[in-house]
Write a structure and sequence with these properties.
heterodimer, A: mainly alpha, Helix Hairpins, 5 helices, rod-shaped, B: mainly alpha, two-stranded parallel sheet, J_dom_sf (chain A), protein transport (chain A)
Amino acid sequence: MAGKLIANLIVMGSGIIGRAMLQAYRKALDNANKTGVAHETINNIRRASKTMTEQEARQILGVSEQSTWEEIAQRYDNLFERNAKSGSFYLQSKVHRAKECLENVYQKNKQDGTPP
Amino acid sequence: ETDLAPPPTFPFLLSCAARTRIALSTAALFHSGSPRVACLAPTVSVSPESSPLRPRIQLSPVGVDMATPLVAGLSVAAAAMGSRYMLQAWQAFRTRAAMPRVRRFYPGGFEREMTRREAALILGVRERAAFDKIKEAHKRVMVANHPDAGGSHYIASKINEAKDMLMGKGKSGSMF
C-alpha cells in the first residue's frame, strides 16, 4: 500500500516537472527573440565573413574622403583613449575596427600608387 | 692475449690487423665513450719460441681515440638543436601572448538594426539595469564621445539610440 502510493507520487511529480520544464524552455525562446539575442546570433553568423565597410569606418572616426592618414590616426588615438577611460569597451572595439579597415584601404591605395 | 701455435707470416699478420681495426671501429660506433672498448680490443702477440730472431710484436688498439671527438660532436649537435628549439618556443610564446589582445575586440561594425543587447554593450550596462544607471552611463559615454569635443556624430547618434532603446522610448515595444 505505501509502496504503491509512493510510486504514484513519483509518476505524478515527474509529469508535472516535465511539463514545467517544457514551458520554461518555450518561455526562454520567446525571451531570446524579444531581447534580440537570437537576432544578434543570426547577424553574427551572417557577418562572420564580412568586415566593417569603409563608409561606416569613416563615419565612426568622423573623417571624410579627403582626410589624410595622419588626421585619421590622430582622431583614432583621441577616441580610443577617451573610450578607454570613460567610454565602453564595445565603442572602443568599433573605433579599433574602423582604424583597421581604413588602414587596409590606405595601404592598398599606397601600393596601387594613387594618392588617397 | 692469444698465443698462436703455428709460425706467423705476413699475410696472416695483415689479416689480423684488418680484422682488429674493423672490430675497433664497430665498437667505437656502438659503444662510444664506453669503457668496454678496451675489453673488446684483442691483442695479437707472437710467441718468442717459434721465431727467436724476430722481436715481440703487439698491436695496440687504434679505435679508442675515436670516441672522444665523436662524443664532442654529438654534444655540440644536441646543444645546437636545444638552442633552436628554445628560440622557436620563445617566438611562439611571444606571438601567442600578443594575439589574444587583438582578438579581444568585438569583430565587425555596428548592427544594421540595434538590439537591446548591443545597446547595453554600447553603454556598458546590463540589459535590465535601472533607469538611474542607464542615465549615468549615457552621460559618461556621451562625455567621452561628444562631437563638440572631438567625437563623431555617428557614435553620438548610436549612444543616444542605445539610451532610448534601453529606457523603452525606441522602436522596440517591450519595456523590459
